[in-house]
Structure formats: C-alpha cells, structure tokens
Amino acid sequence: MSEGVNTSIGASAALDYDAQLMLRVRDGDGASFTELLEKHRSPVVHFLYRMVQDHAVAEELAQEVFLRVYRSRNTYEPTAKFTTWLFRIATHLALNWLRDGKNERGQERLDDVTGDGPAREVPDRRITVEQRMVYEVRLDEVRRAIAALPEKQRAAVLMHKYEEMEYSQIARALDCSESAVKSLLFRAYETLRARLAHMA
Amino acid sequence: MNCPIRNEETAELLLAYTARRLDPAKTAILESHMGVCPECAEFRVRQEMVWQALDTWEAAPVTPDFNRRLYRRIEFEDAAPWYRRLFSTPWTMWKPAIPLACAGLLVVVGFVLDHPVSRTAPPAGAPAVRVSVTEAEQVENALDDLQLLRQLDSSTASAPSETM
Q1: Choosing a second label site near B24 at 20 to 30 A (CA), which of A84, B76, B81, B112?
Q2: What pLDDT, in 10s, does the model give residues B132-162?
Q3: Residue A137 maps to which CATH number?
Q4: For residue A32, is it within any domain?
C-alpha cells in the first residue's frame, strides 16, 4: 500500500549532502555548520512556531535545537536522514515545553488577535480591511484547530503537511511505528476535516 | 477497487492523493474510482479544503539576529571550562553509561543485603568488642580494689581496741 506513495524527490541525495556537511562539522569545519543552519533554520523555527504558537519561544527552542546539533558533532553518526534527526530533537523539545505546562501563556496568546513575533506579511497590500479581517478570522480558526489537536497528532500533521516528511521519517521523529503515524494522521485529519472543511 | 474510506489503513491513499504525493498510476485508478464513488469524492473535497485552510497559515519570518545569537551561545560554551561543558553535554551521550551504572548499583545493593550490618551481635575480635572487654576488666578490678579497701578499713578499725 505505502509503496504507491511517492517518496520525497531526491531524498537520498539530501541525506548524503546534509550528512556529509555534518561530518565536516565533526571535523571542525564551521562553514558547513553555517550552511546547515541556513538551510534548516526556517523550517525548524516554523515547525516549532506552529507547535507552540509563540514566536519568541519557537526561536528560543530552535536555538536549543541547533546548539544540541553543534554539541553532538563529535559523536554524530549518519544512521538516519539528517532532517529526521533534526526534527526529532525539535519535536522532543517542543513536546517537553508543552508538557511542562508552559503552554498556558501560548494558549492565552491565541486570544490575542494581533498575534506575536515579527509582523506577518500580508500577501497583497491592495486587500481591503474587510478581506484582512476575514483572513485574520480564518487564520485564528486554523491556529485554534491545530492547537486543539493532541500533541503527537499536532506534530505529525505539521511534519506531514508543512515539512512534507515521509511516514518513516515522522515515525522516527516521534519514536513510534509507521502504522502508529498513519493512525495519528488519520485521526488528526478527521478532526481537522470536521473543524475546517467549512472554511473553503 | 474497494472504497478506501471504508478502511482506515487504505485511507492514506486518499490523503496521499490530496497531498499530490501519489504516483501517476495509482492517481489514475483513484480518480476513476472517485468518478463512481460519491463518498470518496466528498472525502477528497473535504480534505482539499483542509489543505487550503492550512495553507493560509504562514509562519512569521525568522528574526534577523537568530544566527548571531546562536553563535554567541556557541562561543560562550566553547569558552566555558571543561566541567561546565561536560554538564552541558546532551544526556543522550550518557545513555551507554546508564546500564553500567544500574548494574553497579545492583551489585552494591546485593552486597549490602547479603552482608547486613548488625548492631546486636558484632563479630568477635572487632575493636569495639575489645574496648568493651577492657572496660569490663577495669570495672571488675575497681570493684576488687574497693572490696580490699573495705576489708583493710575494717581490720584497721578493730586492731586498736584489741591492743588497748
């Protein structure tokens, strides 16, 4: 069944390149670390932002992710795809943060219509105030729907939808089986269909 | 073909289809199926609405000083003394040592349980016993001395009356 689903294009090439960069970091090449940082900084911050829904916290957690990558350079072994390892660290940090009960502030921020962090760019400056308000309402609804998902379902959906990760990668990042990931995604999308389908 | 949404396991086909991650052969089969299956067609419409809704959520850009802050933290860590760096090491690096530490702890616990320390019956020949024996002898000697003194006192008290 799953063999019919496309694997991401050039996955093996990406594995080789990122892993090679990390091995160069292990050998003391700082430029390779910068390259890895430039390549993966935005996806990691965006994933963490959608997990914790607080931009400042997301950046702080992302800093910790890359700090851990740097600290682990001497013991790094390319046993898995680099991005899987990276998102595994990010997921663990996000889940720990959420479980520590620090998410209360994050939930409060959901009530803040203006949002947080750097100003979100509106795609087209010619849109009317009414369109802007509709956009904000829709966005708020999406954020609430994602925030309402159980933590693991949330992480699975974010990795599947926004990072386009394969089931096997999500499974490794979440420390569970591929069938468990399929089940998590099925239930999560079922919930989202019920909550968001009316929006289109 | 069987209707995918009647089976949780095969519903991933439809998810993959709506995410455009299905290979062309399976896409063609599924599309022809959806032409005759209203349930699957509705599933596709609703799932595509979810994708569109999720697409509206664009994350805010990363702050420009992200790298600078990170490099400052790395420099700070590199300049830290070795013992601080040791404690900042990810705990996963200590993982191999955990079973060893547990085994060591079990050995110590097992040894302690097998050789309980008893306060009521200390082993013979231990220094504490020798001290107590010495004390007992001293007490016995002291009592003997007292008895001798008492006898001496009584004999000296009776001696002058006899002479007078």
Answers
A1: A84
A2: 666 777 888 888 888 888 887 777 766 554 4
A3: 1.10.1740.10
A4: yes
Q: Is the dihedral of CA B22, A174, A147, A109 positive or negative?
A: negative
Structurally, chain A folds into a number of domains equal to 1
Chain B residues with CB-CB distance to A25 below 8 A:
none
B36 assigned to some structural domain: yes
Domain assignment present for B98? no
Residue B20 lies in a domain: yes
| Higher-scoring residue by pLDDT: A114, A182 | A182
Which positions in chain B touch A59 (Cβ < 8 Å)? 62-63, 66
Burial of B155 (0-12, 13-18, 19+ CB in 10 A): exposed
Q: Where are the alpha helices (DSSP H) in chain B?
A: 11-18, 24-34, 38-55, 66-79, 82-87, 97-114, 127-163
Distant-in-sequence, close-in-space partners of B90: CB < 8 Å, separation ≥ 6: A68, A71, A72
Count CB neighbours of A90 within 10 A.
28
What's the domain range around A107? 9-199
> Does the beta carbon of B72 lie under 8 angstroms from any beta carbon of chain A?
no
How close does chain A come to B60, measured CA to CA in Å? 5
Tokens of A31: 């430029």
What is residue B22's DSSP assignment?
Answer: B
Q: Structurally, how many domains does chain B consist of?
A: 2
The minimal CB distance from A49 to the residues B49, B60, B66 is found for: B60
All residues of chain A having their beta carbon less than 8 Å from the beta carbon of residue B23 are 4-6
**A131, two tokens:** 């369109």
> pTM of the full predicted structure?
0.69
